[in-house]
DNA sequence: CTGTTAGCGCATTCAT
DNA sequence: ATGAATGCGCTAACAG
């Protein structure tokens, strides 16, 4: 932990016996520097551990604000509100460095709508975009085209791995699914009949969770039987309408009444909240172990009543935050390499922790 | 595209027929401005829609250095190394704002040594201190004296709640203990005989974990029996010597051989690592559920072999980071209220998540 | 009370 | 190829 204050370009210049102009030239390799001076400067930089002061940098070059565009489906207020928090945080931190954010949310997981959002962002003159791909591959060509056009894209929350996106910031969803399976096994003491409630699997993160869940369940808890996998997304345009959440709840109630000796439900996403509501309204909370994802508005209540037993959670706020920061780094210093795959660990939430 | 050429403080000054100094005064209400000029400036600000340039602001501000002191026991390299990471991060972020850090670690949980560290920090002219109290109340008077002397103190990781520290940044350790108990119950399927390995309980966070653990265990898993609570700290000066970690391992081996039908061990802190090593070396990994705290050097291996079943973890890096940031906020803008109790949620780690 | 001025660290001319 | 000088917008110290 160094107590020494930041070394400046001036000190580097003095150390290398050159002018700050020369230091600037080699630092931003603009050429026109003799080989020996260049070497001297580089040595000085290394020895003094010089790092440019970004604040001064952006002040001096009156940096035309670098604009970062962000788009994500703003469909479930609790989960996506955290994304907004993360953006706020990034904005607060990056604003002094001349960064400006432009946000365009979509109201569904519709692909066309997302393409339009991207277009809108581009028209606003953003220099880079952070997005949550609505499809695991149908957006590849679009993403590639943007990359081609000089607008790099970073994905977060869910990925589009075969595209030329710059990076992905999110959790390892296969492991999230495995973790959910382990929790299911523990809470059921290794046996019972369960159901899976999923939404459309074209969003990669959802599919990966299911894969992980099933794999883990089969290999470690052979006595737990998955009776059915329900798609509760209501078609391709999930969330296109107002009361989808209530619909999920009613659908769940109907399904729950169909099954006699059901002991568990795994829900692949934040709709866990509404599945939980259904179970509670039917009084099934004690004979059912619900394992799901994400904290939502009723989390506290549903966990306190032991309706939901465990949740595997992401931290969407931190993920956008890092996505935005990485984008800034890339835009500010394109030469510097960046974490291409930044995977965060999911988090387990049980009521003892609340 | 926004071509808004920002209006500057200079333009406001000209518009209001005053100097930029005066504008600055009313903008940051430092007083000493006549009522009419103040009014004129405010009008100009409103009319020109002036907004201060944050970049220039922080560039200019970084002259007034504020020194923040930090002290913590640097006794177990893995856990406390993360604290250093957090400090580095805070330093990197706050340095452009003129903040300087001074760190003094202690090599034990000895109280006198901590008092000396505090003294050293004070002598270096720090404006505020972040610390991990070595005792839940014996440091109260010292902390109060520092507060009295105008050097505010923020505690992190562990608290000294009856002192006049400004704030505490850390997890809720009672809940951490309860969570550990729940996990123990789940992994043992509700019954069995267990042991508790603790270190000295004068460090509040340890005591709270034990309290939480026992309370939860008794109320929810009455068929789990705690056979004994071992103090593996080796007296008041835990960690004062080189090989304490190996000693813990050997001690554990001896204890393990004493108990016949032992099914679980709860370890109150990061010594879980060495308890795990002992269990593994004796080949006990399959007949024993070990629940503990914190990730350490062997976490991956010990979990992969199912020696350690679950860990309840903190994020010490984030906790110092916030402690430092809060301290900065307090020092920079004393009038602004701050989060007095910032409790983070602990995190559960199981091998599926690794 | 008020105005003037010297930097903050860097980029960018403009001379040499 | 190199160095010196100017200024980005603001804060703070210093004169009045």
UniProtKB/TrEMBL annotation, chains A, B:
It comes from the Bacteria. Residues 7-61 form the HTH lacI-type domain. Gene3D superfamilies: 3.40.50.2300, lambda repressor-like DNA-binding domains. CDD domains: HTH_LacI, PBP1_sugar_binding. It holds the Pfam family LacI. The keyword Zinc does not apply. The keyword rRNA processing does not apply. InterPro entries: HTH_LacI, Lambda_DNA-bd_dom_sf, Peripla_BP_I, SBP_2_dom. Keywords: DNA-binding, Transcription, Transcription regulation. PANTHER family: LACI-RELATED TRANSCRIPTIONAL REPRESSOR, TRANSCRIPTIONAL REGULATORY PROTEIN. This is Substrate-binding domain-containing protein. It comes from Fusibacter paucivorans.
